[in-house]
Write a structure and sequence with these properties.
Number of strands: 32
Strand content: over 45%
Radius of gyration: 26 Å
Shape: elongated
Structural class: mainly beta
Strand order of the largest sheet: 3-32-31-30
Helix content: under 10%
Number of helices: 4
């Protein structure tokens, strides 16, 4: 507890740890045994900050050492008063790297972090090519090997047609599923079309989520949902015609949430919940912007444990699908003024949540407070930079999109420290 921290309450001998040696010293101070305590020892012994050193301080130090303190989940004794509980926080600090590649008319739409030495980005990347009649060659993605980016083609139909993925579900480097209207599978060498929209109702798919490679869900316009069970791709009844734009579920795959949003010209928004083998409409607002009756449009979703974290135009809606209770966090808690239409959310833990706005503004919750970061919007200029999606995995975050003038692809990598 509080290891490697000096000048810490409870660490009476100031060796960077709270352990039985500190208890012995506190007992000797209480019994007034020699040597006399220093000012630091008196301060560090008074762990409940009541200006007394007594048996209560000993009891508190024992609970800290044994980790039997009575604090809620994701809380621990406060460093400035061990008798109180404070949130366990994660770091807001990331080292950022911005990568560009290609020329005008390009954009990146999805990313996947396999590990620090294997990161994928997908979309349409134009690279100058003097041998081509167009003056450029298109690529469907790029792969980061820990040192540099390598451009990738995803050809199918005997190398005659190329796929430009709109999202990805990564098993590993040699097992990638991506929707691009139809559904495609990449085995590390060859790209295969595994589902054709013409085989179903004609609806296409643009997003994907799964808890394993034998349980994948693809969603898209017109309420289209396609399920892959490891053998077959089956279109499901979704109960909506709204364009479905994001999907996330719990580790067992028995609770899944989908958000949907049509364009403002023909408004429609929805949150679908999948449980007991059936899709239900959980939320269906009447307006894009929030009103007295609802949160406005639903945008993105990330499921963590028993809670769906749903971004809306009014703020962050935390919906517990077990007890059906909700907690709402107004947008003003995490947005410092810019238009904040989210394009991505990931809740790794309840004290480690990242959100990305359409204008490449980032916000991170560390368990205690929100950190607002508009450095990329400031660098490229508001209205000149647009995000599409991202991935947050462990200590790494990758956001993708494009910037103007000319629509150039942009990759933003962040490494937590």
């Amino acid at each position: 507890m509080f290891a490697d921290q000096r000048d810490q309450l409870g660490d009476v001998n100031n060796d960077g740890e709270i352990n039985v040696l500190d208890i012995v010293r506190v007992v000797n101070i209480i019994l007034e045994n020699e040597p006399s305590p220093t000012d630091y020892e008196l301060w560090a012994s008074d762990v409940n900050v009541d200006e007394l050193v007594n048996v209560q301080d000993v009891v508190i130090i024992v609970t800290v050492i044994m980790q039997t303190f009575d604090c809620p989940n994701l809380y621990s004794p406060c460093s400035d008063n061990l008798s109180e509980c404070c949130p366990i926080t994660t770091s807001h600090e990331f080292e950022w790297v911005a990568d560009t590649m290609g020329i005008y008319g390009s954009e990146l739409r999805a990313s996947a972090i396999i590990n620090p030495d294997s990161i994928w980005v997908f979309g349409e990347i134009r690279i100058p090519d003097t041998t081509s009649q167009t003056g450029y060659t298109n690529y469907g993605g790029a792969w980061w090997n820990g040192t540099e980016w390598h451009l990738k083609h995803f050809y199918w139909i005997d190398q005659l047609a190329q796929v430009y993925p709109r999202a990805v579900w990564p098993g590993d480097d040699n097992n990638l599923w991506f929707p691009a209207g139809n559904i495609f599978y990449y085995d590390g060498d060859t790209t295969y079309q595994v589902w054709d929209s013409l085989d179903g109702s004609g609806g296409s798919v643009n997003r994907v989520w799964g808890n394993n490679s034998n349980n994948l869900y693809f969603v898209g316009p017109s309420g289209t949902i396609v399920h892959f069970d490891g053998t077959e791709y089956t279109e499901m009844e979704s109960t909506t015609e709204v364009k479905l734009i994001d999907i996330s579920g719990n580790p067992s795959g028995n609770h899944i949430f989908v958000t949907g949003l049509n364009s403002s010209d023909l408004f429609g928004s929805v949150v679908l919940e999948y449980t007991d083998g059936v899709w239900y409409t959980l939320y269906e607002p009447e307006h894009y912007l929030p009103s007295e009756d609802d949160y406005g449009a639903a945008l993105n979703v990330s499921v963590l444990n028993d809670t769906a974290y749903i971004t809306t135009m009014a703020g962050l809606w935390k919906y517990n699908y077990i007890d059906q209770n909700s907690v709402f966090i107004p947008e003003s808690f995490y947005n410092e003024g810019q238009y904040f239409h989210t394009k991505y959310i990931k809740a790794q833990e309840s004290n480690d949540i990242y959100m990305l706005s359409s204008r490449f503004i980032l916000t991170h919750f560390n368990g205690d407070n929100w950190f607002y970061d508009d450095q990329f919007n400031e660098t490229y200029g508001n209205g000149n930079i647009w995000s599409i999606s991202g991935d947050y995995n462990g200590e790494i975050v990758v956001f993708v999109g494009y910037f103007h003038p000319g629509r150039y692809p942009l990759i933003v990598r962040g490494y937590k420290y």
